[in-house]
Specification:
Blueprint: E1 19-25, H1 33-37, E2 40-45, H2 51-62, E3 68-74, E4 92-96, E5 114-117, E6 120-125, H3 128-132, H4 135-149
Amino acid sequence: MKPFGNSLPCDGMDHPFKKLVVYHLPEVTAASSDLINADTIVCIDENGENEAAQELLKKILQSVNVTAFSQLLVESGKPIRLSQMISIEGQNLISFGPGLRQLGLSAKIPLYQIGKIGAFRILLAEDLSTLSSSNAKKKMLWEALKQMFDADDR
């Protein structure tokens, strides 16, 4: 699998995450060990690449002490088969924008609620730009993230 970008620091910039491997989909055709072995996979739509969205993502993930993850950049409207790229055992998936159907997963999980496929935990949220303009949605996301990462005392 060919990553879109490199393990950080990307392009010589400082980055707060210990490990961030960004994959640009749907060009990705085979799984890499970074993606298969990641404890947390974060999917964002192509609008989440901008600086403001990435800053919000940083704040969201740091709030629950997630510093090592793989990020998938999913092109709007392009379906992928995530189940062929991940282990689905004990991983967490947080998707900001792309829905389960687009990710090739067949389950019905409401936004801002933890769902499971086997031992694979899933949290769906709106895209980062929509999320940034709604304090109510941020609060729903925070409650779900606390549940997902047992972050009650943070």
